[in-house]
Request: fold
Amino acid sequence: MEKLMYMMMIEKSKTYNKMTKQVVVEHVENIRKLDDEGKLEICGVFKGYPGMAGMYILKTESREVPNYLRFLNFSFAYS
Reply:
């Protein structure tokens, strides 16, 4: 089955500048896990773009997978 590409943009929220080092470490671990599982095509940080933090592009086999991953990342970011 052909892989789909899903781009996820990360916007800076009101709490963006209040992130702890632990949150950043867990976020990076999550990104590395996606890469290890072969689900990450590319990722990066945006500098100099007001309101935007970064993005990543996921490789998936269905539209349901990125929605689930987005939910996990959102839940993780605000837990």
About this structure: Strands lie at 4-11, 40-45, 52-60.
